[in-house]
Structure formats: structure tokens, C-alpha cells
Amino acid sequence: MTVRVRRVYEPPEPEDGTRVLVDRLWPRGLAKDAARVDEWPKAVTPSTELRRWYHAGEGSYEEFGGRYEAELAAGAAAEELDRLRASARERTVTLLTASKAPDRSHAAVLARLLGD
Asked: Residue 39 gets which letter from DSSP?
């Protein structure tokens, strides 16, 4: 199982496998054809409320991760998470984010959960 996390602004690489955008909003200034995104499952993106809370600096990354995991544990998010997990068992999945710090973002939390 291989799950990678990369910035969506980086050029695609052959090792990326299935490229999955995990941001709720399309990245600014990036043409859709240049991004070469294979999937955009909005069900696994953090809610608008959670995203705003975290970007406002109101909590720690650890608290954000816990809240995000709780969002992913129910409904359509849980189903989509299971689907992505199954996909990652079959081929490389690269999670794409516009975050300037992908290792401290929702994409890192999602990558960890996909590896479980």
C-alpha cells in the first residue's frame, strides 16, 4: 500500500498513480488540465467550519486532526474513506493539497488513516 502526499502545484510524476485532490476548494491559479487530477472526492475534505477554525489559529494541529477524524467517521465521508483505502491497496494513491505545509494538513491525517 502506497499513499503519498504532495502539493497540487508540483508537476505530476509517473510514480503518483491515482491523483486525488483532497481540498474542498479548487486551488487558486491552477488550470484543471495542468493539475491532472483523477478524482476530487469532496466527502473526505474537511468541513468549511473545521477548515476556517483551523486556519484562524484557534486550535492545535493535534486537535484539528481529532476533529477531522471524527468528521471522516460518519456517513458519506466514511464510505469514501473506505473506497480510497481499498484503492490504495491496489495501486499508489497521491493525495494532492494546496496547503503550504502538507505534512501539517488534513492531507497528512487522511494519508495516515488510509494506511490503517
From this structure: B
How many domains is the chain built from? 1
Q: What is the pLDDT of residues 42-94, one digit of tens each?
A: 999 999 999 999 988 888 999 999 999 999 999 999 999 999 999 999 999 99
Cβ–Cβ contacts within 10 Å for residue 56, how many? 8
CA-closest candidate to residue 88, choices 13, 11, 19, 33 = 19
Order of strands, edge to edge, in the sheet holding 3-7?
Answer: 3-7, 93-97, 18-21
Residue position matching grid coordinates 484543471: 32
> Quick one: which of 48, 14, 20, 43 has its CA closest to 5?
20
Strands, DSSP E only, in the chain?
3-7, 18-21, 93-97
